[in-house]
Every structure is written in C-alpha cells, then in structure tokens.
Amino acid sequence: MYLGRIGAFVTAVGFTIVGATSALAQETLKWAHVYEEGSDYHQVALWAAEEVKARTDGRIEIQVFPASSLGKEVEINEGLGIGAVDIIYTGPSFVERYYGPIAISDYPFIMRGYDHWKSYRDSDLFAELSEGYKDATGHTVMGLVYYGQRHVTSNYPILKPADMEGLKIRVPNSPVMLMFPNAVGANPTPMAFSEVYLALQQGVVDAQENPLPTIQFKKFYEVQSNINLTGHILNSLLIITSDSAMARVGDDAAVLEEVLKEAAEKVSQSIYDSEQSLVAWFREQGIAVNEVDKAPFQDAVKPMLTDMSKVPYQMEHFERLQAL
C-alpha cells in the first residue's frame, strides 16, 4: 500500500514536470540534416538551438536530428511541406526541384573562390533567388552556408579528364551533380550520403567527391587512397525554415531568423578555416593528395554552363554572378 502511494505520487509529479516543460516551450521545432553528430554543421545547429531558446525566454525549443535520422536529403526537403520537419540544412542542388535558379551557385566552376562566394551570399542576386524560392514553396531561406570546394577521391591519381573516363563515381541525387562527371566521361551514380562509405569499401562505386572537411568527418580517406584537388564545385548549403514553422513562432520569427543567419556565418567560417589545414593533415595520414591542373576540367564543363537548355537559371543570373 505504501509503495503504491509513492508510485502514484511520483507519477503525479512526473506529469506535473512534463506539463511545466511543455508550457515553457510554446513551440518545438525539428531541425533535420544528414551530417554526423561530430560535424561542424551539427555542433553549430546545437548552438543555434540554445541561442534561440535563450533569446526567446524558452518560448521556442529546437530539437536537432543529425545523420539522416529524420530522412535523407530528398525526404527532409519534402518534409518541410508536410510538417514532418521545420528547419533543414540542404544543398541548393536539392532545392533545384522546387525553384531552379537558386541552384546556380552549385554549378561546376561557376564560383571563383571563398571571397566570390561571400559576395554572392551578400548580394541582391542571392536575395532575389531566395525570394523566388519562397514564392514557389512558401518556405524561407534563412542563410547560405559555405560547404567547401568539392574534390574527387579515388584509389589512383586523377590528374586530367581522361583519368575519369568510365569511373563509377558516387554523386548526390540531384541533377546539378551529374554535370561535372558527365562532362568528363565518368559514370555518375546517385546515392544517399549515408550509404557512401560502405559503397566505397565494398567497391560498389570507385570514387566519390566532397569537400575536405566532409572527407575527414565521414572518414572516406579510410577507404580511398587518393584525394585529387579538382575543386570542381564550390558547394553551399541553405538553412531553410518551413512556412508553417514561421507562422507558429509568430513574433519570435525575427529572433529565429537572426540566430540562424548567425549560425550560417559561424559554420561557414569554421568550414573555410578547416579547409586550409586539411591538405597537410591528410598527407600526414599517408593519403596521396594530388595537385590538379583545373583548366582542362573547366574547358570540358564551360559550354554546358551557358547552354540555357541544360541549366535551370537564366543568362542574366549567370552574368550577374560572374560580375560580382
């Protein structure tokens, strides 16, 4: 009898605590992404969650779900529209399905470097393309995140386009990612991010391409002996919030936007800084890091960038980006 009363009391207290916690957080938002818990992307998302909670006096709580735990890239994009997720990191190439022009920054050799990327991030062009995406979907682009320059990893040196002929290379499941391998005669194989390590290990694919920080935190160097510095794409991510999430947070929308923009800037600088030291780090691990003459690769891709039948942006967008 005595134990039963204690149990009833503990249960009652438990319900009271849960109720109090729920009352504090008027809205709970789900932030989904495909990156590992140890990545800068996840760590900065956790920082942003704490900042939003603090700056809204607990009215908004953000729960962060890493490593494709709420779905792969295509699924979390779809999840914004059905309320399954509220905030995502995603590549512009995946957003291309909903509003093509915003993918322009992810096309091969279209960005000249980090300074050019920052100019684009702060430009009227990016603001207009973000607005175009919002008009198409209702969702809000909160910030542009630097993901890094993508390089090809393989088990032999790749120094010229001919070295990629017939190469079975994993690419993200998005149209823009097919352009570079197709231009050099490779065999692009779309595959979810979470499946790449095992596919390389088992020889399902021969190669993959990603920025140096990603190659490090996904440990692709354990199953690939060469990193070839092709720098074929200067990649970005977008932080996007759903229209339903923005409606639910009400007057706190400005705080949410402020923090997410700070998060975008914070993680971008971190990724750029890590890129600068990783060539030496990989060489210390015994990986062959090969310098590549990019000009022949650029020449192979260049005609496609201005063929308006092959790209989702307009010539005006291309010219404005190049003029930055």
TrEMBL record:
Keyword Signal among UniProt keywords: yes
Entry-linked Gene3D superfamilies: Bacterial extracellular solute-binding protein, family 7
Superkingdom field: Bacteria
Location(s) in or outside the cell: Periplasm
Keyword terms: Periplasm, Signal, Transport
The keyword Signal appears for this protein: yes
Pfam families: DctP
Protein family membership: Belongs to the bacterial solute-binding protein 7 family.
PANTHER family, sorted: PTHR33376, SIALIC ACID-BINDING PERIPLASMIC PROTEIN SIAP
Protein name per the record: Sialic acid TRAP transporter substrate-binding protein SiaP
Origin species: Sedimentitalea xiamensis
